[in-house]
Design brief:
The protein has 569 residues and is of the alpha+beta class. It contains 16 helices and 15 strands. The strands form two sheets. It has a ten-stranded mixed β-sheet. β12 and β13 form a beta hairpin. α14 runs antiparallel to α15. The chain is extended, with a radius of gyration of 44 Å.
């Protein structure tokens, strides 16, 4: 009994120490499935979409600068109001904005304590500026530093014993450069929008009708397959030899340019009595002068406006110019990035009109200055057709040449020749004489004649090519039409840059026509091809009178039909 009772006591004590496991009750959803029911998904709590292929969005946006109501209003009216979005788009927008921070009290219409909440950001805030704001900021800083340096220099000059007037005189060139570059370069960046509009060389009348338009990029592609054959019919006028000592002229041994009283003639094609005679006898169909046709050959380099008269009659074409036309004047800085101002101030010696007149007079004086007066006078086949009684004609002659500009189409051209020169082996060579002139040594801060001609003549020519590309191209084309052997280019500068009355010859450089074309980067075949194209277009016109006009502000050439009874000269 004792043994059984002891074993039963041990059994009861072990059973009392073991806990009881109670099976918990499982609450199924009303739909009879596991997980949240369909009714709980329609609550206000939004669930962000999550999939392994989707990117995780933000947990909370603490930097949002829009309030909860502004975001809801923006979502409501962004795409046309309620109902304009699909259910999927609405759920996606709700999920993206569900975790944004907002004041719960403000949702209930109360003030809440949102004003007491402050977001602490110890990082340095970066200010953003637009491109124009940064440009103006840099522009103003440059002006401030410029004024500060000028003030310091003025104070230093006063300490050395100078006065404010002398300091201002020294600062004038710097101020001119400062205004010309637009004050620090900002206006220079936007310079093309402020270019002044130029006037046309002639006003288009209401009676004119537009026939055709030619764009420079299109006509610049015209190229002649070969150089047209040519021959000289005869020479009219008299010539003398050029002074051989001109090659020794330099900046140290300059020569004063003297004016001339000789008469120069700028007669158009139709008024030439020799061309009028040959038009009835010869089988040529195209007539012109070297000056007029040179304008067409170098047309794609022109900037200023010009005009030509085209007469189509009896299967022939005459290229003429108006009396006192712009093409008779020598342009200055026509192709320069900063051309001379044309603000209507005709009294200024550096205006467009004044500089052209000055350059024209310089070329006339230089063409007579280079003549060796002691050399014999060589008479041509005919006399000067334009010389009147009591006049002293300039020493020049006219070569009347016949050029086969197109297959089966002959062109008669009157070309000017300035002088004769002794060529290789004692051969007589024809030469043309032209002059480049400098009107301001600080105009471009580049290559002044007096400091660069003797050592860097190539740099001076490169600068002139940049600012006078059309003028040099016309000279090269006139030399090709006249078939001369040399082109002598003189470099003339003002003795005083504030006066256009006195000039000095600083250097003379001789070129062959083909060499000059190569130096100025002119393709001779394209120049001939451009002339061939215009001749072919004019031969296709109906009989009548036409006006060819270069647009003053665009790279365009237009041809207008003009009434036959209208006086265009």
């Amino acid at each position: 009994m004792s043994s059984s009772s002891s074993s039963s006591g041990a059994s009861s004590s072990s059973s009392a120490s073991v806990g009881v496991f109670v099976v918990p009750r499982i609450y199924d959803n009303p739909d009879g499935g596991w997980g949240p029911s369909s009714t709980s998904l329609k609550s206000a709590t939004a669930f962000a979409p999550f999939n392994k292929s989707e990117r995780l969005g933000r947990i909370a946006d603490w930097n949002s600068n829009q309030s909860y109501h502004q975001q809801r209003s923006h979502q409501r009216y962004q795409r046309g109001g309620p109902g304009s979005q699909s259910t999927q788009e609405q759920e996606l927008e709700a999920s993206l904005s569900a975790f944004n921070y907002y004041d719960e009290d403000s949702l209930d219409g109360g003030d809440g304590d949102g004003e007491s909440f402050e977001l602490v950001d110890l990082g340095k805030q970066k200010s953003f500026q637009s491109f124009r704001q940064r440009q103006f900021s840099s522009h103003n800083r440059w002006n401030s530093s410029y004024r500060r340096r000028e003030r310091e220099q003025r104070q230093a000059a006063e300490k050395r014993g100078g006065n404010a007037q002398s300091h201002r005189a020294q600062q004038q060139p710097r101020r001119r450069r400062f205004r010309r570059t637009g004050g620090g370069g900002f206006r220079r960046w936007n310079r093309d929008q402020h270019k002044p509009l130029r006037d046309a060389s002639i006003d288009v009348q209401k009676t004119w009708k537009l026939v055709s338009t030619y764009k420079f990029p299109d006509i610049a592609k015209r190229t002649a397959t070969s150089l047209p054959p040519s021959k000289t019919l005869f020479v009219a006028g008299s010539l003398q030899y050029i002074d051989s000592t001109l090659s020794r002229v330099s900046t140290r041994s300059k020569r004063t340019l003297s004016s001339t009283e000789a008469s120069f003639y700028n007669v158009t094609t139709s008024d030439d009595p020799i061309i009028e005679e040959l038009a009835d006898k010869s089988d040529a169909r195209v007539f012109g002068t070297d000056v007029i046709l040179g304008v067409l050959m170098a047309a794609i380099r022109s900037v200023y406006s010009w005009d030509l008269i085209i007469t189509r009659e009896d299967d022939k074409v005459f290229f003429d110019k108006r009396d006192e036309s712009q093409i008779d004047l020598v342009t200055v800085c026509e192709t320069s990035p900063e051309p001379p101002s044309d603000d209507g101030d005709d009294k200024s010696i550096n205006s467009v009109e004044s500089l052209s007149e000055e350059a024209t007079l310089i070329n006339q004086a230089f063409s007579q200055m280079v003549i060796d007066s002691s050399s014999p006078v060589v008479e041509g086949d005919r006399k000067n057709p334009f010389l009147s009684d009591g006049e002293t004609a300039a020493s020049l002659a006219y070569r009347y040449r016949e050029i086969e500009i197109l297959p089966g189409v002959k062109m008669l051209v009157r070309c000017e020749v300035s002088a004769l020169a002794k060529g290789a082996g004692g051969r007589v060579a024809y030469t043309n004489v032209k002059a480049l002139n400098e009107h301001d040594d600080k105009q471009w801060d580049a290559t002044p004649y007096r400091t660069h001609l003797d050592r860097q003549r190539g740099a001076v020519l490169a600068t002139e090519l940049k600012h006078n590309s059309n003028k040099l191209a016309r000279w090269a084309c006139e030399a090709l039409l006249a078939d001369v052997d040399q082109v002598n280019v003189g470099y003339v500068s003002r003795n005083n840059f504030t006066s256009n009355k006195t000039h000095s010859l600083l250097a003379v450089q001789a070129f062959q026509p083909q060499e000059l074309a190569t130096q100025i980067n002119m393709d001779v075949r394209r120049a001939w091809g451009l002339l061939q194209y215009f001749v072919e277009e004019c031969l296709a016109l109906p009989e009548g009178k036409y006006m060819m006009l270069k647009d003053p502000n665009a790279q365009l050439i237009r041809i207008f039909s003009v009434p036959a009874d209208e006086d265009t000269k």
